[in-house]
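Q: Got a minute? One more chain.
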Amino acid sequence: MWSGRLDIFSRILDNPSTMGDATSNLNHRIGGRVRELRAARSLSLDELAGKSGVSRSMISLIERGESSPTAVVLEKVAAGLGVTLASLFDPPAAAGGASCEAVSRRADQSEWRDPASGYVRRNVSPPGARQPMQIVEVHFPAGGRVAFENVGRDLGVVQQVWVLEGTMDVTLGAECHRLRQGDCLAMELDQPSMFHNPTPDPARYAVVIASEVRAKR
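A: Always. Here it is, folded:
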């Protein structure tokens, strides 16, 4: 059964245009979310640029939905805003205190494709849920690789990576873990990390993320 879904996933990766409209819509959602979070923190574009290491012009393009930023860029923006990367994919209204649904329906869970590595991520958790964890499902293409800096955060982030299909190499700092189907890795995002699919077949894994604001020293 899963092999059929992998074939569909492979065809999507071979023809990225099939996700074009959805990606454009999601880029606008991400832009609205970034703009909302920045305003809530009373940060100017220049101030967010300084905190994130992403240029002012790029942040402006992201907020207007006129850029297809990579996962690496979005992770830096999220760190500058003091939120997790997964939080940037919530609808903008989710941060405004509005009520949220307790159930996240599969049909409403948007998928986003990283233009650099080709991995596809889907937020599974209900957006805006008043809970300390988020769940993300990731489809990782054969040979794909993405690296995150995970530094300079005011937010402490921990996550567990549970491989559902295939094989993934996950590196945290200087330590590399090879994870196969059924394996689960607990990690704290306090040093650089890298995700790499070393095989000729796609992989699929779930990420459970929890965060808390670090006490300022």
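A: The radius of gyration is 17 Å.
Q: Perfect, thanks.
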